[in-house]
Amino acid sequence: MPSIKMPTPVKRPTSQFYWIRKKVPLRYRQLVGRTEVWKSLETTDRRTAVTRCTAASATLEAEWARLAAAGSSNRAAVVESTPLTHQDLHALRGAAHVRVRDAHLANPPVGFAAVGLRAALDESDPEAVDQAVRSFLAAEGVEATDAEVARFAPMFIAARRAGYADVARAAGGDYSENPELAKLPPRTTPKLDLLKAFEEYVEKGGLKGGKDGPTAKRWRPKIRDFCKWLGHRDLARMTNEDGYRWADHLVDQGYNRKSVRLVWIASLSATAGFMVERRKPGAQNPFRGIVVRDAIDTNAEAKPPRQKGFTQAEAKKILTATVATPSSLISPEKRAARRWLPWLCAYSGARVNEITSLFPADITQDEVSGVWCMVIKPSLEKTSNWRTVPIHSHVIEQGFLDYVEERRRLGKPLFYDPARGRGGKIANPQYKKTAERIADWVRGLDIKGVQPNHGWRHLFKSVARHVHMNSDVEGFIVGHRPKDANAGHDYGDRWVATMSAEVEKYPRFDIPGLKAFPASHKRKRRTNFDVAVAKFAHERRKAARAARVPLTG
Question: What is the DSSP string of 167-201?
């Protein structure tokens, strides 16, 4: 290849000194923010300027390389670049050939116009070739290294020449297909990798919870399963028909149609839509508008739907179980979760994870009204704003604040102990595990057909309507904005005293167990026979282990 041209000192009309004028390579322009850089060499002597120009050029190159390295390290966590294979290089050669040819094939230029077209790129200028190659690769969704760019440059030039030769043939009326194109292979790497696109969407698209949040955790395997089923990961090659075939496949496999529509297809459409917004090369959204209709069973008997919230009988059953004497074998945090979580959820309509994540410092007393409140922080859930929720007086009377003070002295969260953590992922925090265990406990009480934790939220909304809570204030309490709210919903302050008055409209649950002193928990004592049976079984297991023949390598 021709030698690299070094910049030479130049004069500016507005300065007595020599200057360096250096073009910013295409790969650095986004980082530098310019297409060229001017810098004074601080000398009027030509020889000195030449020496300083060489040093200044090297300094600029080093600075741009440093910026690129810093940027690539920040992007590495999101998208890892895939090396171009020999097959990929030749596939890209074919893409360059077709792009040049198709750009001029309909009206091929002739004469001087054709000569000027071919001369648009100075093939003797390494920097111009480098920029043209990088521009083409970027349009093809390829993040190539300097070494890969150097390998592809001769192929790119050959592809341009072949493409212009096809245009010249077309000018004479010969539109036959170039036989060389049939020999070129397809790419082994996708133009726009859907899996990498999803990770970029998670990082930059504002998906609630980020890459380790519940939505990303739920959607990621759906994207992966689709790519595996389709046989490739290239969004640029995916079609609307692929989306419908995938939806039909999932329905045939027995997946719920609503889940197919709101999870499987929604994850694909959201990811592709974000790539279109970012104008990524090859971006399209073939999944937009895909309809998965609910099946209509004409033979099924019409049954009234099961209500979403707990019935009064179910609520009393759960709350009665909260005051029963728990086993001494479970942790203090689990006992407290069973004792207080159902009551707090019932009287506030809060989401269970909003409660399980509370710390003692989140239980505060309003300075104006003196009302005790829960301060619910934004989390990985749907909560996006801080909100203050008054605690019902019935919960206060049961001694909840005494428990809060006990946890405050210990310096621990209300319903879990960080010391018991097992180093799990951020997507599975301890407070979520606490909520899951409470859900299992409620199911063990033979509560069926309703979400064991979210049922309290639905029940609170139903009771709020029944006792005529103010809709705006009730929305402040549960964290909902009424659908029919006007601009006035966002005006004014949310007074705790006003919210407390609405919370107190919620009728108290009459639980007989609250009035009775809890009985002491008694463990069943083993008889001598039980002890003898256990000892015999232990000896048998011990003998069996001793009789095992060790493996020999």
Answer: HHHHHTT--PPPHHHHHSPPPSS-SSBHHHHHHHH
**pLDDT per position as a tens digit, 58-94:** 888 878 777 776 654 444 333 445 678 888 889 889 8
Q: What angle do CA 241, 245, 246 make, to 5 degrees?
A: 115
| 292-to-103, 194, 221, 260 alpha-carbon distances in Å | 39, 22, 20, 7
CB 477 within 8 Å of CB 389: yes
Radius of gyration, alpha carbons of the chain: 35
Question: For residue 499, what are the contacts with CB-CB under 8 A and spacing of at least 6?
Answer: 388, 389, 390, 473, 476, 477
Q: Does the domain at residues 312-514 carry the CATH identifier 1.10.10?
A: no
Q: Of 133, 131, 124, nearest to 151 (Cα)?
A: 133
Tokens of 104: 């001029």
Backbone angle region of 491, left / alpha / beta, with phi > 0 → left and psi within -120 to 50 → alpha: beta
3-state secondary structure of 112: helix
Helix (H, G, I), strand (E, B) or coil at 105: coil
CATH of domain 194-277: 1.10.150
Q: What is the mean pLDDT of the chain?
A: 82
Residue spans of the domains in the chain: they are: 10-75, 86-183, 194-277, 312-514
Whole-number Cα distances in Å, 118 to 23, 114, 214, 457: 23, 6, 54, 70
Dump pLDDT digits (tens) for 177-231. Answer: 889 888 888 877 778 888 888 988 888 877 776 777 778 888 999 999 999 999 8
Q: Whole-angstrom Cα distance, residue 480 to residue 463?
A: 16
Query: Is the entire prediction scored with pTM above 0.90?
Result: no
Tell me whether the CATH fold assigned to 194-277 matches the one assigned to 312-514. no
Name the phi and psi angles at 374, rounded to 5: -105, 130
Residue 238, number of CB atoms within 10 A of its CB = 25
Q: Is 449 helix (H, G, I), strand (E, B) or coil?
A: coil
- Single out the residue of 217, 294, 228 nearest to residue 255, CA to CA: 294
